[in-house]
Amino acid sequence: MKKLVLITIVFLSIFASCKKNNVTPQVTLTATMARDSLYYIMKEFYFWYNMPEAEAVTTANKDNYSDPYLLLEAMRYKALDRWSFVADYNEFMAEMSGDFVGHGIRIGLASDGTARIASIYNLSPLYASGVRRGWIIEKINNTALAPILQSNDVTAYNNLLGASKEGITNIFVFKKPTGEEVTISSTKNAFTINTVLKADTLELSTGTTGHLVFDQFITPSTDELVSAFAYFKGLNIKDLILDLRYNTGGYLSVAQTLASYIAGNSHSGSVFAKLTYNDKHQEANSTFNFSSTTYSMDLPRIVVITTRSTASASEAVINGLKPFVDVITLGDTTHGKPTGMNMWDIGDKYIMAPVTFKMVNANNVGDYFGGFPPAKILPDDITHDFSDRQEACLKEAIYYLQNGNVSTSKSYEVFRHYPNYSEKPAWINNAFVDRK
User: Fold this and answer.
1) C-alpha pair distances (Å), 146 with each of 115, 149, 152, 266, 412
2) Which of 76, 185, 346, 352 is the 20 to 30 A CA-CA neighbour of 147?
3) CA nearest 271: which of 252, 251, 290?
4) Is 46 exposed, middle or buried (0-12, 13-18, 19+ CB in 10 A)?
5) Residue 376 pLDDT
6) Long-range Cβ pairs for the range 266-273 (8 Å, 24+)
7) 340-378: per-residue pLDDT in tens?
8) pLDDT at 354
């Protein structure tokens, strides 16, 4: 990893330091300079740079593109690569630090045709007003929301909610689980999100079971996971239900930490994930091992709740644990991303993150581009809160832990065509190697 970072620094210095008369002038980074940086990175470090089907990586004329965004789209290996991206530096760093501007909600369309709160952050102003997962959103700014979601009209949705800026106010008409209607005015503001959406326990016939709903692998997650697993350790949990249904990824080191808590210190030093780079940079191949933790759980089995949004670093946790822990998934097939990326900071203006490596576990299992299929297909039941025992996925997870198999009740139709709107940027669907 250090060699990759060193090469990046040397390359960027071409643009950042040009000496004349012992004076270093200030150089303004332009879009074409950033484009040229991406061109070099893609030809040198892109995992699929030499695939015959990815001929655009070698044949693209960078001068035909005005900025790195357009060039990346031209050079990306479209048969497999859904994830490489270029992002604004400040927006990316804010996202990975947990800095957030908005209402702090995820909105989904339930199987009954109602628009509902799918998740909500603790510091959201709506959370302070009592709003929780499962509440129906009848109207926003006097406009019915469900028809917009049913038609998957992203433009209408964005116009209705407005930009992700502080000070924008929306008027929500909710229907509570009791049937009561309530109107709440919410103004978008800035706050730090919580990535542990829920950490509680269930008393089952098999003993005390931990229940962790985890939203993403970012910087604040480390301290939140310490608190969650200290709580689980204190209650001596026997099993764990790990809800990753909306967890689209983040830092691989945080995924390593979560997996280490679960696998326990008995597996410390064992392989969690092996990273393989392209043939130009085999020296960068590396291994992430399970680490020793204060709140080691040494759990023999876990149930993971998944959806199509369960991606990358989340899938790395599932795959990395499988050689050591009995892992069963319930819900829907995961996203299917057995790859990850390094990040290049281009003049504190752009973050460039092409796919640079693939991941396998201790048994050399990877290439799960089709995702991990569940033991039983279940809907993302947004009509119930996460800890409601009638929530479809949680109910089935409890059944499995108490019976050792999935129930014989029918599998549900999964409404994959129904939209689920998050206020987060799409590029979060990734496993990032931390910038050193």
Assistant:
1) 5, 5, 10, 50, 22
2) 185
3) 290
4) buried
5) 95
6) 266/296, 266/298, 267/324, 268/292, 270/323, 270/324, 270/362, 271/320, 271/361, 271/362, 272/316, 272/320, 272/361, 272/362, 273/316, 273/319, 273/320, 273/359, 273/360, 273/361
7) 999 999 999 999 999 999 999 999 999 999 999 999 999
8) 96
For the chain, the residue count is: 436
Tell me: the pLDDT tens digits for 81-129? 999 999 999 999 998 999 999 999 999 999 889 999 999 999 998 999 9
What the block records as the tokens of 129 is 């007003």
Residue of 18, 16, 53 whose CA lies nearest to 37: 16
* pLDDT-derived band at 51, boundaries 50, 70, 90: confident
Tokens of 167: 């000070």
Domains and CATH numbers, the chain: 2-96 (no CATH), 102-192 (2.30.42.10), 196-339+356-420 (3.90.226.10)
Closest by CA position to 306, among listed 318, 298, 323, 297: 318
Smallest CA-to-CA distance from 176 within 129, 134, 147, 127 is with 134
| Alpha-carbon Rg for the chain in angstroms | 23
Return the axis-axis angle of helices 31-45 and 68-75, rounded to nearest 10°: 30
Nearest to 277 by CA among 49, 32, 45: 45
Structure tokens at 300: 């023999």
Tokens 């509902």: give the residue. 116
Alpha-carbon distance of 57 to 35, in angstroms, equals: 14
**9 has pLDDT over 50:** no
Cβ burial of 93 (10 Å; 0-12, 13-18, 19+) is: middle
25/28 Cα distance (integer angstroms): 10
Query: Quick check: helix, strand or coil at residue 343?
Result: coil
Strand order in the sheet with 250-251: 250-251, 431-432, 339-341, 355-360, 271-277, 286-289
| 221-280 confidence digits (pLDDT tens) | 999 999 999 999 999 999 999 999 999 999 999 999 999 999 999 999 999 999 999 999
Q: 86: Cβ–Cβ under 8 A, 6 or more apart, which residues?
A: 34, 38, 68, 69, 72, 350, 351, 352, 353
Quick check: 200 and 110 in contact, CB under 8 A? no
Residue located via tokens 């740079």: 49
Asked if pLDDT for residue 203 goes beyond 60, the answer is yes
* Amino acid at site 392: A
Token pair for 273: 């994930």
